[in-house]
User: Fold this.
Amino acid sequence: MAKLVLSSGGNILHQYFIDEAPVGIGRDASNTVHIDHPTVSRQHARIVSVGEDHIIEDLGGSNGTFVNGSRIDRRILQHRDIVDCGAYQLRYLNTRLAAEVELDRTMLISALPGDVRPAVADDLAASQPIPARRQARVRFPSATVRRLSGPGAGQRVPLDRVVATFGRPGHQVVVITRRPHGFFLSPVEGDPAVRIGGRSVTEFPHPLRDGDEIEVDGQFLEFTLNPAA
Assistant:
């Protein structure tokens, strides 16, 4: 049995059993996984079944779909994978896959000569939590945004979350997403054109560079990359 556990900010919000694929993910209410948030596209992603596997497909939204920190177009999901959709996370849990991994491990150890079993068993036990080790290798950059004008001028906003929102709801809103390979800006409400570094940008998500000046709803922001630790 497979399911998705929806969370945001570390809080679990809902779970969805997905054995009845395909499963739509997005802001539109017609989706199985309905996430009503401006960082999520109306039709953001889809999960389909191929044999015993579940495959997630990005549907071309401006903020993209990420699995374990890497942007994907199409990928076979593995037990305990983390899917990022805007400001929300979906953990994929598949008890059948987990049981198969444990069965393969048990069968391998049982087939080994007695004098080598303990050492190999220890090695396998140490390497068993594969998803956790893979995630531990993901390093995220650090940056801040300084408000140059408007309310809160001079304030520095640390970009220490996956998604940070700037602008005024109902006028113009952009999000800056934090990924292992950098920071990217996308409009989510209002005028889709954003001025960055004095020029109008219309192709998104747009990679940000150290010192970029961003104009959003008549306010100016300065993006600064922090030195690597």
Observations:
- The first helix runs from residue 95 to 110.
- The longest strand covers residues 172-179.
- The chain has a mean pLDDT of 81.
- Helices lie at 95-110, 117-127, 130-136.
